[in-house]
Amino acid sequence: RRNALFSMPTELETAFESTISRIKNQKSERCSQALEVLKWTFLAQRSLTVIELRHALSVTIDSPGKMQPGKLPLAYDETLDWDNFPSEKSLIDWCLGLVIIDEETSTVRLVHKSLHDYLTQLHENGE
User: Taking the model in full, what pTM does it have?
Assistant: First the structure.
């Protein structure tokens, strides 16, 4: 399988690079959300439902208050930012075709296994 990663057709690599570059050239909010959708979809241990992904993208984690030297932080404050709750349409549109919703299961997934392989290669190379 590892050999397959390195022998992936360069046309696909070029297409993925081009699409990710287009994502990065979108307005800041769109770019940030699209990259987060790609990260969550790629790194999740199981397929996430649309609702789960929307919630995950809406959680903000604030660092704890004052920390005392030598002590662990008391707690992080997690809040659901309802103003930042992404629409289902924006989840897909801003990813420019790299992520799709499986209508049967209402889960979000990468468009093709070759994209997963490409992202795995980038991830393993620390990119």
Answer: 0.76
